[in-house]
Automatic annotation (TrEMBL):
Protein name stated in the entry: GxxExxY protein
UniProt cross-references to InterPro entries, sorted A to Z: GxxExxY
Organism of this sequence: Pontiella sulfatireligans
NCBIfam families linked to this entry: GxxExxY (TIGR04256)
Lineage: Bacteria, Pseudomonadati, Kiritimatiellota, Kiritimatiellia, Kiritimatiellales
Amino acid sequence: MTVNELCDVVRETSFAIHKYHRNGHLEKIYENALAHRLRKLGVKVEQQFPLTVYDEDGTVIGEYFADLFVEDCLIVELKACRNTAEEHVAQLLGYLKSSRIHDGLLINFGAPRLYIKKYVMD
């Protein structure tokens, strides 16, 4: 499965979760639901997965924990807030750059309308 196909699966699954659970739950509920449903589809998902952060010269300077790390190639950052903010985008872009992962999705379940946006680091 290509990363674009994988993103489509995550999007479709997120829409189904939002349709059923709606907004109003804590972020962890959506994290567990998305991980559960993706695993049922046969997709490899790791929750709170530690990703190494590298400095520009390749030195390891720490780690952070991705909400979901899907098929060893896609970081999924989840939110459960009224609106996404620039800080949320900056957080995901920082994760992508520092961990040298190419693709990420920012998903907000907290609003009446589901928000999903893909980000790519070149």
